[in-house]
Amino acid sequence: MTIRTWSEVTAAGDVTVIEIEFPRMRVQLLSLGAAIREVDVPDRDGVLAGVHLALPTVADHAVHALNPHLGGTLGRVANRIAGGTFVLDGTRYHLDVNNGPNTLHGGADGWDRLIWRVDDISDDGDGARIDFSLTSADGDMGFPGTVQARTTYVVTEGRIEMRYAATTDAPTVINMANHGYWNLAGSRSIADHELHVPADRRLLTDATQIPCGIAEVEGTPYDLRDARTLGPILEATGGLDDCYLLAGDEVRLAAELRHPGSGRVMRVLTDAPGMQVYSGNNLRAPFDVHQSMSLEAQRLPDAPNQPDLGPCDLRPGQSYAATTVLEFDTD
Fold it and tell me: Is the pTM of this model over 0.85?
């Protein structure tokens, strides 16, 4: 294993690039957004190719208009908050509204748009550990409390583990997640990929993607309990942007993406209660619509306004923790 680091100047500031290379895998991380930029893994014949969408230069990743949260650590709250507002302990907070009437992924300058500190890069011989940290001040994008957040990547050959942690000095809400954009063929479409999500139910949403109910997937185009080719699903639905409800609270299989042509397989394991399945419906140049699949393990969207969707508050003296694992394989 080889670890290389360097710095690149961007509009957001100096960005640290960390590259971890194994004989059969290469991963590139950015301090901008504590993000995954590139991942190369082999096909069934051992040929390495990129499986994560990236812009041509690191500097491009700092341009909001070009970067749809590529591989970034989302926060303070991933996904949508209805009306850009919520009430906590009797106080109403007004957030940055950046997605129609709603707040998406923490606001226009959410955590994936910020440069994180690189606290440690270590090598234990079998893999690398990279610790990123961020201080989010009270009032950041309208959220209360000063939050100390941490994203830790543990990278071994064929595996990327992401550990999220946070504490606060005042009551707040939090939901950290990774927004990867995956195409296991390195192609312009995921129509020939297969997807499996072991979930019986998904959230229904209104016209602005705010949850408004829960439905069984059985008998619908959204049933992914058995692996299904994505092409017909994209035709039937117009594209997926749906949160699936996962059973259990331990780290377990939450999704499996497969490309039969190359033999590449990616499994997502997590302890999160939800899996947002997004098929790149709104991708723009230099990418194509439906060029990637995002599998965002997270707490449920709009939970600050809908307690029935599960707790998402964090209070002084408490610690937030979540884990997501990506496993790469071939069949």
Answer: yes
